[in-house]
Design brief:
With 281 residues, this protein is α+β, with helices and mostly antiparallel strands. The strands form two sheets. The chain has a six-stranded antiparallel sheet with strand order 6-5-4-9-8-7. A three-stranded antiparallel sheet has the order 1-3-2. It contains ten helices and nine strands. The longest helix is centred in the C-terminal third of the chain and has 21 residues. The protein has two domains: 92 residues, Winged helix-like DNA-binding domain superfamily/Winged helix DNA-binding domain (Arc Repressor Mutant, subunit A), CATH 1.10.10.10; 171 residues, GAF domain (Beta-Lactamase), CATH 3.30.450.40.
């Protein structure tokens, strides 16, 4: 089991718009809006590349995006010219320009080796997936992960943004959040602004316990336990969590998970938590 957040398809949202002969939406937007739309379309094409689909044909892109063939050809040629796609006899693959960006992202996001080892050891001991989240606007961003060694596991990839309205890590990250942020988070939830009251209850309970727990709050059958990583200023800068199938998270295991998580988080706090997003927390 590798539950993931379902991405919003920007391309699908555009399919109902009337189009002119060049495949552009026939609206009255100006050049700036059209430029933004072109950028989004290019990103939609790049997002079609996955580990399971490493080569894209023009036909496949047209079918997946709903764009006109002429528009797809124009965009893919532009992406190829800038090194973001690479033309082969089978279609288009990821271009070498993405490697430079990937290297930059990796050097920016990668945690120190000592911190990575702590997470690896924790995952090996408890046999559940270890995630490290940081707060960014109304989302929690996964900045590091160590997968469970078990075949049935929970996986969120580094860089993924998950909602703050549910989940153990959210209850940790929102500890010092102002009311204005809690209201925005609640409004983004399926429950509306009334969810603020429940968020406050969850945050208070987590602060009292010293850890947070969640069962099927965001995804059915998924549980998690999370604790805080404290920065030099004494505020919460990250949430360290163990997550997996609810059947493997009975009460007696939760206490064990929480104790181990706290020990690791304290070591991270003592050595100083080093990550670019820490300045935004």
């Amino acid at each position: 089991m590798e539950p993931r957040e379902k991405p919003v398809s920007h391309a699908a949202a555009r399919r109902e718009l009337p189009r002119d002969r060049d495949g552009a939406a026939a609206d009255a937007q100006g050049p700036e809006a059209q430029g933004v739309r072109s950028v989004q379309r290019a990103l939609d094409i790049l997002s079609l590349l996955t580990e399971d689909r490493q080569v894209l044909t023009i036909k496949a892109i047209v079918e997946a995006t709903g764009l006109a063939k002429t528009t797809v050809i124009r965009l893919t040629q532009t992406l190829e010219h800038n090194g973001l796609l690479w033309a082969t006899t089978a279609g288009y693959m990821a271009g070498p320009g993405l490697w430079r960006w990937a290297h930059l992202a990796r050097s920016s996001w990668e945690l120190p080796p000592e911190t990575q080892k702590m997470m690896r050891d924790l995952a090996a001991r408890q046999r559940e997936t270890v995630n490290l989240y940081m707060l960014h606007d109304i989302y929690r961003v996964c900045v590091a992960q160590q997968e469970s060694p078990l075949p049935l596991r929970h996986v969120v990839h580094v860089g993924d943004q998950l909602p703050l309205w549910g989940g153990a890590s959210s209850k940790i990250l929102l500890r010092d959040a102002p009311d204005s942020l809690l209201v925005r988070v609640a409004r983004s939830s399926p429950y509306g602004e009334a969810h603020v009251r429940r968020l406050r209850e969850w945050i208070a309970e987590a602060a009292h316990r010293g850890y947070a727990v969640s069962h099927s709050e965001r995804e059915d059958g998924l549980s998690a336990v999370a604790v805080s990583v404290i920065g030099r200023a004494g505020s919460v800068v990250a949430a360290l969590s163990l997550s997996g199938p609810t059947v493997r998270f009975p009460d007696e295991r939760i206490e064990v998970f929480a104790a181990d998580l706290r020990q690791v988080a304290e070591r991270m706090t003592e050595r100083g938590f080093d990550h670019p997003l820490a300045a935004l927390a």
